[in-house]
Amino acid sequence: MEQGCRKMGTSTRKFPLHSSKRLRRRFLNRAFAVVYFFAIVALLYHHAESLLYSPTYGAFFISTSLLLSDIILGFMWLNSQAFRMNPIIENIFPENIEKVCDRKNFPALDIFICTADPYKEPPMTVANTALSVMAYDYPAEKLSAYVSDDGGSEFTLFALMEAAKFGNYWLPFCRENKVMNRCPEAYFRSNSCSNSEIKTMYESMKRRVESVVEKGKIIDEYKTSEEEAEAFGKWNQGFTRQDHPTVIQVVSQAGNDTDIRGHSIPNLVYVSREKCRTSEHHYKGGALNALLRVSAVMTNAPIILTLDCDMISNDPSTPHQMLCHFLDSSPKFGFVQFPQRFNGLNKADIYASEFRRMFYINPVGMNGLSGPDYFGTGTFFRRRIFYGAPSSFIEPEIVELNPDNFVERSIKNQSILELAHHVAGCNYENQTNWGSKIGFRYGSLVEDYYTGYRLHCEGWKSVYCNPERASFLCEMPISLNDSLNQTKRWALGLLEVSLSKHSPLVFGVRFLGPLKAHCYAYYAFGPLLSFPVAVYACVPQIALLNDFFVFPKVRNK
Hints:
Blueprint: H1 9-14, E1 18-22, H2 26-52, H3 57-80, E2 88-92, H4 97-100, E3 109-115, H5 123-134, E4 143-149, H6 154-177, H7 184-190, H8 196-215, H9 226-232, E5 247-252, E6 267-272, H10 283-298, E7 303-308, E8 311-313, H11 318-326, E9 333-337, E10 341-343, H12 356-366, E11 379-382, E12 388-389, E13 392-393, H13 414-423, H14 447-457, E14 461-464, E15 472-475, H15 480-498, H16 504-512, H17 514-524, H18 530-545
Parallel strand pairs: 3-4, 3-7, 4-6, 9-14, 10-15
Antiparallel strand pairs: 1-2, 5-6, 7-11, 8-15, 9-11, 12-13
């Protein structure tokens, strides 16, 4: 990545790529925190005193509940102050990128898109996400999109094949009309498109994809070539979601396939890793590690973007924004995290699905403490980050997985495809460092939080990049049932980390320092907030009925 663009010290001084600004009012917050701390101590003293002199069992119960609740709330407040000690806002200047680095020298980019269920995550959603990133304002021969289908659905593959055909028209349309939102569904929904032909083509593709999902099979007339028929032939009667062989299909190949204007289109590869009921698959973390290996064998780009299947690109210049940090950073710099911004939220956001504190406020505070955590999507990684600490490289088991390995052969080369199938096998990780020291980390249901935490413990740094125009837009659960299911998974995964040997209060303090460790502890122990919420929802009413004062009177000493 560095060889074509790294020798640019003078250029970056003349044309800066990014700048940092510390918030001036941080000192006022520190002074306020000291005052607030003593107020919390006084409140805990009051609860303890009330507990010692409780006249009845009811008063004892109330005082105990309030004391425990306020201890938890005080602990979480203390953790939250770490975000406010040194907040930093990053500014970027993507317009300077091509002044310091020629497009032909841009580093290659592998994009990982993850999906797991064709009914909860419709194939058309996956296709739209893939098209939105394939249309990046970036050299097509340096772009590769890998779609991980953990549901093993032939409908997802069919949607990608249809998307590639439509992409032959969509990509030049976006270039020639300078379209900003390059997700077809979002574009046609928000614009009265003057080109009715391109919209008709999209609607036709959409009908075909949705019809095969509805019918539950792909009819022969939709299989337009022997290669497609052979690909879908892998879904036989013994093929199930939980038990099936590896399926890797090159849908489009850069340098070989072109659009209607004769320009190359990016690589698009469908990957469904092997699954077996007797082997642990590690959910999304396992799927990402399979993509990490498959992509290393096929293209091995030095930079990786991870996306959820419902997170579309909203700005074709996002790779330029990413390069503002990667091309002017230290060897310890590991990833750029973009915020999650959401479509489809009602105005009131009654389920708090926007998570403003998690995705907008706290990351600014973590910018001053070696950088934000990994959100699980919208993240650009340096591939080297997954192979040990900056100063201690961990050699993978085969040379083809080395992040510095140069791939000379075509992604359709038979030996390349055979090796890609091998590294996507369900037993490949047995007796290796994958998931523990190499790749995305296993050990928690929230593999994103845990992976980012462990990477920071190893000494890697990151940065939070929040441009004015949203780089990505995604959907969030807006029903109570979906919101509760997601919150339950997060809570269980975070408690797995907080109660493990890698707890931020022990392991984190040792390797990150107290401030950054408390940032991670804020999330890891976040599920404990359910207790004080329940107490303060019920106990004050009980106290009122029993003529018991929850808080001290103003005239009390």
